[in-house]
Amino acid sequence: MKMLIGAVLALGLSSLAGAQVTPPEIARQQQQEIKRGDPPRWTKPDRTEAAQLATLRKEINAALREALEACKQQGAGANSGCVQEARQIHRDDMANLRQIHVATREMSRTYETSGK
Fold first, then answer.
1. Number of H helices and number of E strands within the chain?
2. CA-CA distance, 108 to 69, in Å (whole number)?
3. 11-53 confidence digits (pLDDT tens)
4. HSE (CB half, 13 Å, CA atoms) of 73?
């Protein structure tokens, strides 16, 4: 799952990678969640392609929210280049959802390299 998130960010938000900003209220919530530990659903893999695509959509939407928050932190207005670029990346990622899904599946495969 972590590789999937990394792939989405690498494929879709490469131009905004340095602009990620976590709002203080979200950071506090994240710290509380870290203390409680991972929910069991996080370690349960999405078995079906439909479930995997639904998770990917959620991640792409979350990436858009993060990018828009970063634009806001920069003081960019609703029609700024930063916001327009974030929305275009989101549209492109959603349009290429299946290709991103295939690419992340390929990246997450485990290959035996020990020679055994």
1. 6, 0
2. 29
3. 554 444 455 688 899 999 999 988 988 878 778 888 899 999 9
4. 13
Q: What is the DSSP letter of 47?
A: -
The values of phi and psi at residue 78, to 5°, are -65, -25
Nearest Cα neighbor of 4 from 75, 76, 58 is 58
Structure tokens at 89: 């990346």
How far, in Å, are 18, 19, 65 from residue 78 at the CA level?
20, 16, 13
d(CA 35, CA 14): 31
Q: Are 63 and 9 in contact (CB under 8 A)?
A: yes
